[in-house]
Structure formats: C-alpha cells, structure tokens
Records
---
Amino acid sequence: MNAILTGGFADPSTQSAHAFRALLEAMARPGRIFTVAGAQPPAPISVAAGVALLTLTDSTTPLHLAGDADCEALRGWIGFHTGAPLVPAEQAQFALGGWEALQPVTRFRTGEPSYPDRSATLIVELDRLEPEGARLTGPGIQTEARLSLPETAAFRANRALFPLGFDCILTCGARLAALPRSTTVEDA
Amino acid sequence: MYVAVKGGERAIDAAHAWLAEERRGDPSVPELTVAQIREQMALAVNRVMAEGSLYDPDLAALAIKQARGDLIEAVFLIRAYRTTLPRFGASRPVDTAAMAVDRRVSATFKDLPGGQVLGPTFDYTHRLLDFALAAEGTPQPAPMAPAPDEPVPHVTGLLDRDGLIEQQPADDTPAPDLTRQPLELPASRALRLQALARADEGFTLSLAYSTQRGYGRTHAFVGELRIGRVAVEVELPELGFAVEIGEVELTECDTVNQFKGSKSEPPQFTRGYGLVMGQSERKAISMSLVDRALRWQELGEDFTGAPAQDEEFVLSHCDNIQATGFLEHIKLPHYVDFQAELELVRRMRREAVQMQEAAE
Amino acid sequence: MTDQAYNFAYLDEQTKRMIRRALLKALAIPGYQVPFASREMPMPYGWGTGGVQVTAACLTPEDRLKVIDQGADDTTNAVSIRRFFQRTAGVETTERTTDATVIQTRHRIPEQPLAEGQILVYQVPIPEPLRFLEPRETETRKMHELEEYGLMHVKLYEDIARHGEIATAYAYPVRVEGRYVMDPSPIPKFDNPKLAGNPAIQLFGAGREARIHAVPPYSDVVSLDFEDHPFAASKADHECDLCGSAGSYLDEVITDDRGTRMFVCSDTDFCASRQAQGHRGRLSPQGATP
C-alpha cells in the first residue's frame, strides 16, 4: 500500500515544470538524451517513465499498460497519482511498456487525417539508451543523431504514415529521449 | 536628441491609479455598495452571471462595480475568475418543470394548467420616466396571492401528448464543456445551446431578430416563457442519493415552430429552446429562435445562407469576450506590421508612377 | 514576490498538462495547428493569451524571461505580460536576448541569433494561413488534410499579376518541412528567414482560436514564392539612426510635422547593445564617446 502512496512529485508544479522542459527538449531534438528526476514508481517501471506519466497523464488521458507494466502495483500507483483510466491499446492516448510488450505497435492510434494530433504517445521502456546505432534525421536534428533503438522497421513504417503516426518517449533508468513520427530512421 | 519612448511601467501604474479615481467618481457622493448593486441592478447582475457562466450574484455585483458598469468588462472579470476555480463535480440536470415560477406566460394558449402569471415585468409599463424615482423611497407593497399548489407543466408536454410536436426523448449523454474542450465543428445541439447560453445578449438578439425578418425564418410562437427558482442537486456517491445544495433563478423559453414535415416526419410543430441564468427573458427568447434556426439540417430544411442558420458563423462570433478582446487588440502597437506595409505601398507606388511616366 | 493565491505560473496543473500534451504533438507534427482547450485568461483575447498559456506551460522557476512587443521590451503590453509572470511565477526577467531562456514575442524575431536551450514563444492572432482566403474552419481543415494549397498560390499569383509582386508584407505564409502551410504570426517578412534552421524551439500560441503550432529546431521553413518571383526579405532602405546598423529591421519615427523622419531599430536590445559597443548612427549625439 505504501508503495502506491509514495513516489509521486513532492512539489508538483516545480517538478513537473522541470520534467516537461526535458520532455519538450527531447521531443524537439529527437535522439538527444535527457536525465529527469522526481518520481519513484513501483518496480519494474523506470524513474523516467514514472516522470513522464506524472507530467503528462491524468484522469482525461486513457492509458494502456503492456506486459510487465500491467501489474497491480503500478495500476494502484497510477490510480492514486494520476487517475488515468486504463484502457485497451486501441483506445489509448498513452501507452507504457517494453518494446516487445507493445507489439504490434500498429494497433495504436495514429490520428485522423484532419486531426493527426489525436494519436498515441508510447512510453517505451528500454534496457539500453545510448547515442549510438540507428541514424536519425529530420526536424529537430541539425545533421544527424544516433540512438540505440530496438529496431528500425517499425519506425520507418510509422514515418511513412506522416502526418499520421504515433510518437515515442524512450525511457531507461532516469534517462529519456523522444522519437516523434517526423523522424526518419535508418539502420546503422 | 531622440530618446525612444520609454516608461511603459510608469504609464501603466499611473493609468491604474487614475482609473481607480474615476471609478469612485465624486467622493462627496456616497459610494455604491456591492449589496446595492446586487439588489437594485439585478438585471445587470443577471446578465453578468449568464454571460460570465457563473451563478454568484455577489461576485457579479462586485464585477459590475469594478468595471464601472461596463457589463462586458464585468463578464470578463467573472470569466477570468471562473477558470481558476476547482471543479468538484457536476450537478444533476435541473428540473424546470418543478420550477417555483415568478412569471409564466404562454402565447399559444389563453389558459392552461398552472395558469398565466404575469410576474414582475416591464411589459405593460408605460415607458415614461418616473421622476419619483429620483427621490429615495420605499415602494408600496405589491398585492400578494397565495402561491398556487398546482403543478405548472410545460406547454410543449401538453402538445406532445397529442403527438403534435416533435419528440424529444431524454438523453443522458454527458454534455460537452465548451470551457474545457476546444470548439469542434459540426457541433452537437447541446454544445450549441451551451455556447448560446453564454453568448452576447446583443448578438443573440440581433440574430433572432433577423430570423423574424426572413433571414432563416422559423415561424416561432412563444409556447412558454417561465422565470423562477429551481433546486440544484448533486449526487453524493458516498450517500447514494442526491442532495439539494441550493437554488438558482433561471429563465426558460420554449418556442413552438411551424414545420411542414419531411420524408420521414409527418407535419408537426418543432421546438426551439432557450435557458439562461437569472431573469433574462430577452436573451432566453432570442436563444430559442437562434437554436431553432440552427436546426435546419437536422429537420431537413433548406440552408438559405441566413447568418442565424450558419453554425460556424454563429458559434465563432457569439462570445463577447473573444470578440471584444480581438476587436480592441488593434489598438495595441502594430508599428512593425505597419512599417512593412508602408514600405510595400511606397515601393509599389514608386513603380506605378514610373510606369505611368514611361507611358506618357 | 510570487502571488501565493495562484499556482506557479498562474495555470493549474491540469491545464498545464493539457497544454503540454498539445505542445509535444505540435513539435511532432511541425506546422500543424493542434487544437487545445484554451483557458480564459485574466487578459483580453488578442493580447497574448495564447502566448501566455504556452509560456506558463514551459516556465520553470530558474528561467530568465524576456517579453517583447514589436521588438521592444518597453511597450506597454510587453511590460504588462512580463509583470504577470513576475507576479505569478516569480521568475527572473531580462531584456538581453542572449541572457533569456524563454522569450515571448509579439510580431518580431530578435535580431540576435538564438541558440539551443532557448524557447521563442509567439503570440498568434489568427493561426490559420488560409483564413483570409476561406473563412470556414471546416473548409481550411480539409484543405490542410488534403495538402490543397492551390488557393494560396493563386492568391499570391494574383498579387503578382496586379501589383508586380506579392503584396504580403507581414504574416507571410511559410511551408514547414514540405508539408503544412503555416502562419508565422504577423512578423514582418524580413524575419521569415530566421524561422528556418533556427537552433531554438519555436512555439506558437493562439488563445482565442485555441490552437498551438510549433517549429522544431533546425527545421526546413520555406516562404511561399514562385521561381520567377522569388521571396525577398525586405526592410526600409535605411540604416538605424542611433546605432548605424544596416541589417536590422527598422521602425520609422516621425519627428516633426514637416515630414522629418528617422529610422531606429525595432529590436531595442539589439540597438542598445550595439550602441554600448560604440556603434553610432546619423543622429547619435555628437562627440559621444564609445
């Protein structure tokens, strides 16, 4: 029970402001890695994923939990700290889980042609997040960026839907990076 | 030497101090109290509550005092305050059939269950300035009749029993909230009514008037206009039943409109609806006419291009806080844009003059 | 001193989250207008309510905020907005472009090139670049969906046919990353080239119209034009009479009723910095030492 009540932001307006700036910079500069702090979600969820949930989700944002993330401890923590309603993948505005657990990612909302913003944001938990590997180009990237992505095909397919598509926040420990639909991803 | 215009901060402080002085007026004249405004300027208070979307007569009266009687400015103060208030929940829908009516008139039936109640209306006052009001005094008490204990059913319900008016089954779909979601078109009727309920009275009046003059004519009769108090109840999940938390005064207007019928519907009457906080019958009647005009598509009527039929036009322009802000923003500095235009016009003139001279 | 009666930066946390979500989607879809549930702010619509909401959602207590209107820090509405954030967020403010981490602007992009780590927040009156060609939102939304920008090109071409050039001097439309046509807010077209390849994050807030759009850093932003009539950034053909700058956007000041004029930088910080460095213009005090 204690694990549910603790681990939120102690000073929500300041901590969420700091967290959002990291998320904003991350989404604006795909592939760049930022460190965040302030959340202690129950295992197996990372600090960065917890920070993203506390900063972006609330009772108005349907959330899907995939794989290990779909555990009682986390459901309780989310219920207490954000109130986000838990839903199946197809209805989710946010989704949280490992890359494998989120598959097939094609089931997530990619927006509507006249409202491409009505699309899911996937919070992808990774074991590794390093500035190496897949080559990223596109808006927000001066020349190119490198990021250790779990694969590239799914992101290429997502890019092909532009302006539709889902957007990703990649988390590992206290670090995060983002991969919006606008980024072109190529194999290393 | 030229010094760029500076002193914005000092100018703003001085302007605010001067405004406060002007607001007070001649200090030898006693200051208005908020209670005086609330009690004696009640219709202004009602308008500010309706268009401000906040039922609080004391705050509305304070806003009127602060705004020096500029009602749109007062509405603005209330709106800005309202957005910061936490939301504890939504009440149950109020039951206007159970309204304790102060006024209830029908233009469609001479007499009807619940009767006609003229109430405190300007309608048959001769509009002669009453110089006696220039002096202070207490009016003679009005004659009182015992409160009727019979119910006051809606006229539209009476027509409905005979199948003469369109059906309007109860709908429990939660109403969208215009103040929490961006306007999306096409809008549902619930959203349109919400926008109209807080719309500028003057704009709504003029649109309604235009339908009467043929710009989207709807052949409206006031089936019923009622003003009175209704109970506000909230559901308390802990208790499992609804609890009355207070009363609000409302004005409700049902219009009964001619309808020739369509492929799927036999000839029958249709409805226009207006509901406004406080006593505000001009607004409620206007709202019901505009509501009906906006329903052309649903009722299979023709779009004649009338402004009152045009949902996007009406909903995008009915809010006086949006309108007045954007209108008045053109008094802000536009040096930069104007300079860009100036340069463009000078260049185009120069070229035009050169071409003219070359031609001569 | 922060006003304790209100949350940090005025807006409640739920409202900030809603705006923050819209901002992330705006960055993910460059140039697309994201609808957001714009709040009624304690300042009039049309006076920067969109910019203020975006700034409020981005600010942290450590930020240094600069607010400009027409390029100047001292115009009354810039003063008023800066005070609002001093009062509700307690943030440090600055007039120096280089020192600012967040800059809220109306109608200008600062002359001093921006850097990574800076955010430029534009106040936007009408976010829809097609609005004056087609007043209906329902129609323009469809046009963006279908990438149907022919109407815009026709309008620009008619300008050329009639006037010999494109007669749009400010709020000059751009295409972002080859997809969405975007209104850059009423900046003079002189500023348009600064939209492209900018290292800073550019965010656009339209409060009354309830839309947010964004240009990520280093984005491709092209001012619409034609091969035979290429876009040209233009300004008054003068130098600043105070700092001598030949490359900055100028305000025209009428100094008497006999037609005497002078031209001064619209960007007051840029002009003051140049003067501090010893640059002088035509009307600088004689004998002034750098």
---
Amino acid sequence: MLQRLLRGTPKARRTKWLLAGGGALLAAVLAIVIVGIMRGTAEPPSKGTPKSMRLLTQDQYLNTVAYVFGPNVQPTTRFAALPRIDGLLASGASLAGLTDAQLETYQKTATKVAAQVVNEDSRRYLVPCEPAAADAADAACAKEFLAQVAPLLYRRALPEEQIDKFVAEAGKAADSLHDFYQGLGIVIEGMLISPNVLLVAEVAEPDPDHPGEMRLDSWSLATRLSLFLWNAAPDAELLAAAQSGALQTKKGLAGQVDRMLASPRLETGVRALFDDMFAFEDFTRLTKDNTIYPAFTGETAVDAREQTLRTVVDHLLVQRADYRDLFTTRKTFMSPSLAPIYKVAAQGPGWTPYEFPPDDPHSGLLTQVSFEALHSHPGRSSPTLRGKALREVMLCQTVPRPPANVDFSKVQNPDGSVKTARERIAFHLQNPSCAGCHRIMDPMGLSMEAFDGAGTFRHEENGVAIDTSGNLDGVEFTDIVGLGKALRDNPQVPWCAVRRTFAYGTGTAADSNDRRVLEYLSAEFADQGYVFPDLLRDIALSRAFRKVYEPHVRKTYPLPDLKSAERPQQTASAELPLSGSAAAHP
Amino acid sequence: MNDVNDRHSRSALQRAALGLTALAWLPLALSGSVTAAEPTAKPAAKPAAKPADLKDWAPPGGRIGYVLWDEVSWGLRETPTKEECPNGFNIGPREQFAEEFPKDGKKRTLVETQLKREAAIWDPDTTPDEFPFYEATGKYAIGVNLDGKDTPEDFESDDGRKGIDNQLFRVVGCIRNYRKEGELGIITTKWRAQKPFNRVTFEITGVDSLKNDPDVTVSYYRTLDTLLAGPTGNYLPGGSQRIDERWGKRFIISAKGRIVDGVLETEPFKEILVPEDGMGDPAINIFKSAQLRLKLTPESAEGVLAGYIDVEQWYYAMNTSWATHHAAYGQASAASIYKALRRLADGYPDPKTGQNTAISGALDMRLTQVYVIHPESEQPASGAR
C-alpha cells in the first residue's frame, strides 16, 4: 500500500495522499458515529422546563417537619386537595391557589408543630442549648436554635440579618409571654406560615456553561432534587452542596444524586411518586356497599393502597427489577384485612411477604385490590372505569369525557336475562357515538371482570361464566394474566413511566416537557434494563431537569371593579341621599 | 360468601378446570417480617382441585379451621310455650333476699343478711336449698350421648338421637339469664368475639370431603388473632388465626372424628379447656370426655361442644364473669345454682368422696371459617377458598 502511494509523479502522489487521507478521515468519523450509536446518544438539546412556583404538598410539608424536628413531631392536619393536571397532583401544585381557609389550616398546623417542638419533652433534645432563664429572652440560645432550623425550613442559607430578625422576634415574644420557649414557638409558627416556606418559588440564573440559557440556581435545584427523590425539603448536606456551588458541578451534582438515591429516604420519595401516579388519593373517598362486599372495610382500603406501594418499592428499589414486570409479578405483601379479599391466609397480624403461585390469576398490579376496587362502583365492578384507568394511569393516554347526554339506562338494564357486564355494555360497541371511546376501554376492562367490585377473584357473574378474553392495542389474550403480559410488553408502559416521572420531578405538566428529552430518557431506561432507580438518576442528572425558561404567562385582564366603576345613573342616585344626609347631619 | 354460593352453581366440568387455576397456594414460611426487603414466604403445596361433585367438596390441603365467635347458649332447648319449665322460672338473688329477709321490722345486721348471702355465693355448700328450684324437664334436649347409654335421666335430640346427656340443661334451663331473654346470649358472645383471651379455634385435617369422610382429625387450639368483623354484627369467614404455642400449649388437643352428611362427630377429647374472660377475671371451663357435633359448611360451623363440665370451674367462671346486676336482673341465684349443679352432677366421681365432680352439658355455638396458621409447621393451614 505504502509503495503504491509513493509511486508516480509528485502530483499523482499528492492526489493519492489526499484520497487516502480523506478516506481515513471518513473512516474515523464513521467509527465515531458507530461507537456513538453503540454507546447511546447524548441528551438532545431542549429548552428545559418552565421555572415554576408550586405549593408544598401536605406530605412534603410533613416530611420536612419530620426531618427538621424529628418524626415525633406529627401534627394532624389536612391540606386542601390539589388539582390533578396531566395525571399528576405534583403538576397541579404549580397551578393551585391559596385561599383564606387554606391559610387558616397552615396556621393551625404551624401552631401544632411549634407547640410540639417547644413542649417540655421535646425541647430538651430539639433545642441545642438551655436559656439562662426559662422565663425570659436569651438571644444567644435562640440564635443557636434558629440558625440551625431556619435554613432547613426556608430551603436556603439565610443572611445573618434575617436570623437576627427571628431572634429579635423570639426575644420580644419571650419577654411578653415570660417564657423563652414560647418565644421560640412563636417564631417557628411564623416561619412555617411564611410564603417562602409554603411556596416553592424556583429562581433561575444565567448558565455560565451555556451562554444565553438559564438554569435553576443552586437552592432551587437542591429543592427540586429533594422534592423529587425524597418528597421533602433538602437536608443540611444538600444545602451545603448548594451553598458551596458544588451542586452546579457535574461531579458535585452526581455525588449528591447518588447519595440521595442510596438514602433510605428514597423509599418515601418513590412511594409519593407512585401514590400520585396511581391517583391513590382517591382511596380517601373510596366506599363500598358493605352488604354486597362485607369483607371490604375501611382498613381494607388503607391496606390495598399500602400493598401496592410496598410491592412497587420492593420490586423497583429492593429487587431493582424490570419496571415492566410490575404488571406480571406475583410477589406482593399481605395483611389480615386484605387476605379475605384475596381468599388466602394472613400469616401474621401485620404485613408479611406473599407470593401467589404460578397458576394463580393474581399476577401484577392490575390484579391487586388497589386497582380493581378503586376503579369500580360501590356496589359493582366497572369494565369502563377499569379500562379508562388502564389507559390513563398506566399508558398516559387520554380518554375523552362522555357526552353530556349519555344514556345510562342501558347500563342499568333491569332485564334479568342480562347476566354479565359483557352483555350489559355490549351496546357500547354497537352505538357509534359510544364506540369511539369505549373501543379503547372495554376490551381490556372486560377481562378485568374476573374481579368483582371489591377486587375478589371470581369465575362467574350471576351464575354465568365470565368471558375474560380481550385485546390491548391488537394483542389478544384470554384472561387477566394475559392482559398483564400484554400490558407488560406494551412499549407505552415504560414511556408513560418516564413521562410521568419527569413531570413529577420537574413539577411541570407533562405537555410542557420536551418530547425528544423524554425519548432520550426512555431509550436510556430501556438500555439499562428498565431499572427504575437508574431512570431517577438519569432524570436528576439530565440538563433538561435543571435548565429552565420563563413560562409563558397568560395575560389576564381583571374584571372591572363594580363597586367603584363609574356608572352615571348609579352615581347620581347614590350621591343624592349622601348629600341629603350630609345636609341633615352636618 | 358469594364466592361459595357461586361455587355451588358452577357446572362440574368448569369447577374441575377452574379449580386447578383458581385455588391459591398458601405461604409456608412464617416469618413475622413486615419490611419490604425481607424474603417472601414459600408457596404452599398445591391444594387439591375441587371434586366434580360439589357435595364432596374438600378444603384445600384437606384442612379447614373454624373459630368460635358465638356462644348461643349452654345447651338450652327453648320452646315457644316454655314447656320445659312447667313450674315457671326460678327466682333470683333479689327475690330470695326479699323472701329470706322480709321487711317485717325485725332488726338484722349486715353479717346476718348481705354477708350471709355473699358467703353462700363464694363459699357454697350442698345443703338442701331453702328455696324451691325448678329444673328444666321434658323429653328433648340439645347435646350428645356422652356415655353411650340411654338412661331415664337422659334426653332425646330433635333429630331422634337417644341418650342425650345434658344435666346442665336441667340446672340452667329455667333461669332467665341463660335463656334467650337473658343476657348470656348477648354478652358472652360479645366477650367471646372481643376478648383475645377467649379466642379458640378448631381445625379439621385429613378432610377428603366436607360432606362425608369417615376419618378426620380435629384439633383444638387457643389462637391469637382478632375476628374478621362483618358490617352487620356478624363475623365473616376468611380470617386467619395464629396458634398460641407459647401460652396456649395446654389447650392443644386432638381427637379423631368423622363427617356424615355434613355433620362432624368426634371421639371424646380427653379434656377441652374453654377460656372465659368476662369481667377481667379470667376463668377456664373444663369439658371432660368432650365431643363435638358440628354441622359444617365451607364458611361456617354450628352445633355443640358437649362433655362433662367441671362443676367447680364452671361455677367459678360464672361468678367471676357475671356481675351482681347480671345475676339480679337475670334471676340467677348462684347459691341455688351451685346446689343444683352438685345435685345433678353425673360424671367424674371424686375418688375419695364418691361425689360427682362434673355435670354433663353442651355449649351450643357458632363458628366461622378461618385459616389456621401453624407457626412452626411445614404445612400451611388453609381453609375454603
């Protein structure tokens, strides 16, 4: 080869060298591309997510209080419900309003927390110093305590003068109430109802590595990470990383994310994520007709929710198993109040691991009471509700709302010869105005008729064998186990998990997310064998997670103030008596 | 419950096929773990498929448990016309006190009156009763032929069984407290259901058919768990009961039995101890040579635990379980009852005195199906599925 290149005239040799060099360059580029493809693509550029302001949820608030003051501080409270946006309450938190009634709840909760923190039992270990006198102010001791807790509640380092203001307020209250600890309590209460605590207002800053782009500042990034992975405000170590700037470095961020993923607090975060994703807040409203389902009690509902969350945590975090296998796994946990619904023995008074045998119809989350009972009516099952939930919760699809003039009399058909749900709702698919939507719900919903409205497996309805065959997006199956397998193999399932998890982590509606980023994360998720903690890591470390942009704020035009609007007739009529009155009563 | 009804209407072929897939295996291991990280229980041995003939349905693994939740009565057969009490009902402690110490102006001390009556309750004797005592009489009674004999003092059951031994019926049959209008039926059932001390469970093993099986084993346990309460005051099948192998060892006993037309009859258990905690002073009733006669379904059992009941223990349990007002309103005079118990006792004579120490009787009861959990057993306990 070399000899061939050296042969010929100088011009010919130069041409040969150029051709050879070009070929080598092309080969090198091709090699890089091939290696790149083999190693996976880099995260595509995206505009990031909108910088948001969101309300701290009840669990985030309570988890934060528990972290700052210890798990013994557990105020009973009930924050206002959040709207569910794009399948997540977490997204709704950025659209929630704040009413007077909510503020009252926050204030009452803050009072309870403060009282528990400074009561005689707790103060000994929660307040790190003893005041010179318990019935008077002690600025030094107050500062030692407040300088420790205030940054944890505010989720950022606070300037010295801010701490001093708190200390001064604590001192004033202590002098007024003749009690040092009550003074501290007043300041704790005040901090807990501060908008800076209750609202997560993300702050953006220019990204020095990408001129022209914005990123979350360190405190906002710390908070976003912590709410995502722990469902609580950042801990002291994460705040320290934010303060030092380490969190804005690749290594520092990875170190903190790995630490958070390795923490036992990850379980709290993952439970919160799936509780939100599966719309389990509906359990608080779930009722069953106990003359029809006598074994389904209030405790059953609580345990059904817990069973699924335990299954998810064990499968995803403990076993680090394939996310998709959640829909086929036979491993779960059993409690005494659930065992009668499953018609199995409870091995103990509390929760015990349980595995259904290979030929059992219980296989995967769809066969758990949490899905079957939650998506049923109080006195009967519902193929439509179940099919709709499967589409919306597990596949992130949207089923249109029913028309306003829908005729329910067909569903409530009193004809005694109609024995099964399949017969009752057959008209759905015959009536063109119904079929459009029901075609995407009923075929899989009917296979779940193998479970009654309480979630108990059954072979028959009204003495007639239940036909559990169906299809999901073209995949045929004959029973509920087949549906679980079809769902497990449906590519929309991991895609949906990625979409929801990213939206949950960034606190923004899924529709705002960049599809290319989600596709990239989905591909990574698949490459990593659908191991969920790896997905969490990928999301937390992605540029899209920390890159933000100013959201488009829709301009609103306030309604006219009717009280002050000038309306000639009203003004005239209103002025008359006033002037008359003024004349009469100078 | 619905499931069982459904099961009854299923065709034979469907049952055979579906039974293979529907019956659950139960975990073997009994780790008390509750955390997500702990290993799962081993799957149980595969239970038998349901036989084609529903009447021959057998519980999975040949095991079925029943927990006692309702004490219907102490073996009382009550008739609407009260024909078993031709002389009426007995009077109670208030009436006896008023009769013994009339308001006749005579001065009496506390020792001569209340304390005397109190002593008669807590230090009873067999001297003739100062008051007439009306025993229940008649041809029929609830119970079991315990001694295999048919003697004049024995009864006949409604289904024609002769030689029914139930002398306790004679004692309590005409005392209001023990009848339907009394408090026993309500309160002892409440105590039985609510107090963990009172939890007892029978388990039948080796069951090939719940309809007819000539050879089964019945075991009796004290168990640990709460009952599965239903919405209408009843208790539901499908709960689980762990055997108390620590403090309940002395309760554990087994006997052979047979099931004929859905009715279980056992050989005599040597002794069945029935815990009885009413008012916080626990007692144990002792049934000697005890026999069970229970009508079985996959969901429940009802019938009697019959035997020779230790008189002193039964009397002690009565006095400690029932408060004074129960006895007063229920017209149950302890002193008179004791004398009747001793007078009518018909079993287990004291070797020294020759006096009988036990009285034949029956506890009429209802039980509901449970899964019996054997803590250290390799075989899982199970019930109807």
